[in-house]
Write the structure tokens for this entry.
Amino acid sequence: MLLPDEVVPPWWVHRQCDPSSPAFAVVDEAGSPENVTSRDWVTLGGLGDPARALVDPRGSVTPALPGWSVEWWVGGEDRWYFPALERTVRQRLEGDAPIITTAVRCGKGDITHTAWVVAGHGGSSWLALRVRNETAAAVAVALAVRPWNPLGRAAVHTVELREQTVWVDDAAALHLDRVPAEFVVGSVDHVVGRDPSAQLASGRDLRDSTSPTTVSDDRGLASAAVVFPLPHTLSLDVLVPLATASGRGRRGRQRTVSVPRSVPEPERVVSGWALQAGNGPRFDLPDSQIESLVAANRCHLLLAQRGDRVGAPGARLDEVDGAVVLSALDGYGSAAATAEVLAELEERQSHDGHLLGDGRRREAVGASLWALGEHWQLHRDDELVDDLVGAVAKAIHWLDRRTGARRARRGTHRGLLPDGAVPPWLGADGVTYRAAWWSTAGLRAVAPALVAVGQPEVAEDAARVAAELSGAVRSALADDARRRGDAVVASGPGRPVDGGAVGIVDAIVLGELAAIDEAATATLAYVAEHHVADGAVYLTRTGQGLSARLTARLGRARLALGDGAAVEQLSWMAEHATAAATWPETTNPRTAGGSSGAGHDPVAAAEMLLFARDLLVRWGPDGLVLNPVVPSTWIGQSWEVHDLPTPYGRLGFAVRWHGERPALLWELEPHPGVVAPPVTAPGLDPAWRGDGASGEALLAPVAVPLPEDVVDPPVADTSGGTGEPGEIVSGGLSIRPPRRDSDG
């Protein structure tokens, strides 16, 4: 079956160029569109290799940004099926691993497309693609190289077929398991305004010696497809070398790659990921959906570590975001990955002591110190801290100089860090409280680690600078409160109260406003009223949409204050997770798709993992707080936590029920020399307090929800794969997927 003369553009291009679609975005006819409404993908990769591939919600695969993509089309008995247009497309993770299967209904059955990454020779990674025919009839399958990716236009100058290998710009790109029946070539129309279609010339049977085997386009618009017959129950397998895709520039030289002789089946790869993610704490929760999100994001987050740094394809993580990712890796059993990144701090330190790049990011030093301090508190990695003492001392002196030079000045900025660059959602560049909060928290977090490695003088410097900076913040906050007549905290001294007030969540989560309850609660109330929509934080300053990472962080801040409203953020995160358990950096509230930044945000994954942990255990100088908030639908159900790292040691606990009374059992394996702290469980019994490394207690009665108040458990999907969204009920949270627009 030959392809039609007109082939649809990628999924997101089709939607943004269709005036009838809610995702429509006006684009100059002379230009190429940028994806601003459907910026979603799943990141795939292997551990030990920084190469990453992307899969969009319709199964289009991008081996590396900002390069080309591979789309798949299915020729059925009646017509060609393009996943970019079909309403029956569904996706799922295999197990909880980063292995993604996309299915499209073709006739009375499905054609499935599975993508996963396997290791090759010499530490290289390969993207494996498998298209399987699960219908009762034979079909044709086309794999097309397109000059697009999930962000926008890519450049493809030459596509060539040589036997069983497709070459893109002189590099081996697709290794096929058989010779294709057809090779269809053409160029994509560079005008995307009124007619977004892409033209491919009809191909011929390859047994015809006149059939084209190469297409070239000096504009970088070359496009080609290989077509295969695919009988019932059979599969087509393709391998894409990620090292080649990510390790060469435009028309670069071919890198030598050795095709793997065998490829592990997805089931085996799932087992490998389960072992990797199984190192660390284990949760058995009443809410199966939250438990599943945690399991999947533990795997997703492992791919955020790329050698000696953390990051995401298509987006740069600032120092605070990187510290959050490292904290989640540490908290979920990946201390070695965190240590590998932290070990390079000194290499990325400037001569004046600033850490991690741009000296205009004033919170960078504090966030880096905080990540190191958190790592030591959870895992007592004395060797790493000892290796970094010189870098830490220089960083402390950098903060001391930047704040000390301003202590004698009058005005609202005295004693704070100087003007600096800030995230767009926080407001205009300048002096911010956020920089001071992260710096103070970092100094306090790293001080005990310095004492542990025999550096009490450096630890005293850290404590002194932290106290002075904290005092300057308190003074500036008091000045602001007197000037405005309320306790709401703006993004910085002397600034108006606006969307930047969302920065308060950092202060609360870091414990920097624990003693100023009025400021914390007043600011959270302001944020909830003016900058939260249906439980999610809306980025009013940038107009980019809803922020999953800040929504989860708001939930964590509410947990820190014992506010049951944190369940609103938990519900939103569960409701807006994709089928692959991911979130984009920002979500378009109209289309529920990504609108800016990374289409698969590792910071949102990290914040969700930390949110789930904080729902179970928080800690501070006063001890361990178990279940600061308990969702009402957990009442009467049991849950368990095992091997959770805390600053006091590894913790396990369980909640059982005897009628209306919860029974709490806990056991702590303290760090050497650490005395077991007090234990409380305010979400179950605010008056109870336990002591000792282990124990059990029968707590006060808790009202058990009446049967009519309990939501029914999840019901298995019996729709036959129609792809129509329905209500998902999990663990008592009634979670209705967001309405998708009519074009799918």
Summary: Residues 456-484 form the longest helix (29 residues). Residues 412 and 476 are 5 Å apart (CA to CA). Confidence is low (pLDDT under 50) at residues 189-210, 246-254, 708-744.
